[in-house]
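User: Sequence for Neuronal pentraxin-1 below. Tokens please.
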Amino acid sequence: MRDILVSAHNGLWHHICVTWESNDGSWKFYKNGDLKDENTNFKTSYTIRQGGTLVLGQDQDSVGGGFNADQSFQGMLSNVNIWNKALAAEKIRKMSQSCLLEEATDQIAYKWLDFVHEGGAKLVKPSPCQPVVMGK
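Assistant: Structure tokens for Neuronal pentraxin-1:
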């Protein structure tokens, strides 16, 4: 999957979405609304418990620490959201074309503003997000 991530590192804005379902451990990786990779049996029947820490943009060499500035994400993130269910492929495709969140946010476990308010992030306005041209 690393080759897919590297191909998104070209100075352009990309919509990235990863889904995972506990029941069969299936995961899917979408870039710009297109399914790029998928597999099963990843953390099958696993439950994500409350009280943990989610780290964005930084490799951890140990849980909650061991950060190295040379391993940090360089770029901008926007509209990072975590839903409590796997989104359908059509919904992901539509979101990738609009740069905007759908109005129905009742199933978002963590929304973008939760991340922005939790520290460290620098909010750049206006967002550089531009609608994705399909096939890119």
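The two ends are 18 Å apart (CA to CA).
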